[in-house]
Write a structure and sequence with these properties.
By secondary structure, the protein is mainly α. The chain is built from ten helices and no strands.
Length: 315
Amino acid sequence: MFKFGQEAVILFFVLSGFVIYYSYNVGKDKSFKTFFLKRFLRIYIPLFIVFATDAILKKAGGYEFTKNTLYDLVGNILMLQDVASLKPNVVCSPFLGNSPLWSLSYEWWFYLVFFFVYNKFKDKSSLIVYLIGTIATITYLIYPNFVNRELMYLVIWWAGADIAKLFLEDKPMSLLNVKTPLIFLTICTLLLAVNVKLQNANVTIGVSPFLELRHFAFSIVAIICAFLWNKLHWVGFKYTFGIFEFIAPISFGIYISHWFLIVDAHYLDAVVTNPIVRTLLYIVVCVAFAYLVEKIIYVKLNKYIMQRFFNKAQA
């Protein structure tokens, strides 16, 4: 099941588009400063703590830092990271091999593009994004790079934003009302399928060029399934996805720390020899760490910085 973590990220992109569009439109303060500060603090406070903790554990384990380590750190701070072993022409790798951080670079640039495109073009913004995303997909077939990859994946994220628009306007949640994003997602999917065919290589489902095709195909399936499930009044949701509600407030912390605290962890290897017990302890440590970061440190720092920002703005 955990081999499908990539699909979980794509589903999150759709959900993220929904949530950002929704929260921005129901919020009163629509200034860029407020929008940027909220997004910056939400991502970077936990992220900097994760960087520091991971570095300390790596150093204690004898890891040797190099110039490439510094290069990756700067690249991650600038949100330029991706997984070079899976995609072509990547700018830098996730810091210290924490591969799940690849999605943060997409998220960050989605936020910024959303603000400027939506405020500039309003009702025309969706069509503009879909057209640019389609062009980016075509150029991706010729020369894949960071820019056209981000713009291509923005189509998936913006589909979530269009669903939020339907919700806010109290329009029927029908597949007919999301035909535009579904059409463009299908176009991008077909283009990526052509790319796979043209590559004429041994295709691995977890590596480019099949990986991008897999992402876009899944986004279509996820949206269609969600709308059908909505028609069924989300029967069974409470006993499937709903059971994870208790970790929702710390899910971001778990996501950005689970790689070095559980998956690639070694800090308890010398202390606990039983692999099952050791893994359970790793999970406990990760959850506790995420709770500390998300519910205590982030909350206090975010409140302090936001209060100082607004007090200074009012003065």
